[in-house]
UniProtKB/TrEMBL annotation:
Residues 1-24 form the signal peptide. It comes from Chaetomidium leptoderma. This is Cellobiose dehydrogenase-like cytochrome domain-containing protein. Keywords: Signal. Pfam families: CDH-cyt. Residues 50-219 form the Cellobiose dehydrogenase-like cytochrome domain.
């Protein structure tokens, strides 16, 4: 079974502290509010299996509320724990968000990060990042993202991307049999250079995390590979 490393445990504790004592597994602020106070009675994080009726690809889906993106993850069913395999990530974000970030290791530091933002009328940029501290994450060349699809309308922007290099990293990796912890962060501030994957971006305004096995994310290998084949 996958066990969190000491560095990721520290990252989780820092994430909890940075949310000022809130429950970091699902703790965004209401949209438009600068306060970190929470009303847990009005919101509940949900993880479930979601299957796209058009593509028949199924995902592990995490959702919280209308001001936070829906995150969906899929992996090939042949994947082994702590090994190199492609991972599929879909982010459906409210139009009000300037960027959305996803952590494959459950914290900001010492694991692969995906930071995505809208780019143009129907595009999106996904940047591979890594952080060793509580500063702007640097570009991470050991993980590569290829876009499967992207879109944008008046209410949401969406990007789906396949990552090579996000399932295993120094001192960590995804478990395909046990529970994994993932994390996310968002900001309403647009990035400075939307067309540049190395662009700087503002500090997050909301953060959270969730823990779940990848059982609901497993897709038959042939179907997975066929789906991501044309990603660029």
């Amino acid at each position: 079974m996958y066990t969190l490393t000491l560095t990721n445990i520290i990252s989780l504790l820092l994430l909890l502290l940075s949310s000022q004592g809130s429950h970091a597994s699902a703790t965004p602020n209401p949209e438009g509010s600068s306060s970190s106070s929470l009303d847990l009675s009005k919101r509940q994080a949900i993880t479930r299996k979601y299957c796209n009726p058009t593509t028949s690809i199924c995902y592990l889906e995490y959702s919280w509320g209308p001001t936070v993106p829906v995150f969906r993850i899929a992996v090939p069913d042949s994947a082994a724990s702590n090994s190199n395999f492609d991972t599929l990530l879909q982010i459906i974000a409210p139009a009000s968000l300037g960027w959305a970030g996803f952590s494959w290791g459950g914290g900001m530091t010492l694991n692969p990060l995906a930071v995505a933002w809208p780019n143009g009328n129907n595009g999106a940029t996904v940047s591979s990042r890594w952080s060793t501290g509580r500063t702007l994450p640097s570009v991470y060349s050991s993980a590569k993202y290829r876009t499967v699809s992207a879109s944008r309308n008046s209410t949401h922007w969406m990007v789906e991307t396949v990552c090579s290099g996000c399932s295993k990293w120094n001192n960590g990796g995804l478990s395909t049999t046990g529970v994994n912890t993932f994390a996310w962060a968002v900001s309403q501030t647009a990035v400075s250079q939307p067309g540049n994957s190395g662009s700087s971006f503002a500090i997050h305004s909301n953060i959270g995390m969730f823990s779940e096995s990848l059982d609901q994310a497993k897709v038959p290998r042939a179907a997975f590979e066929a789906y991501v084949k044309g990603a660029k």
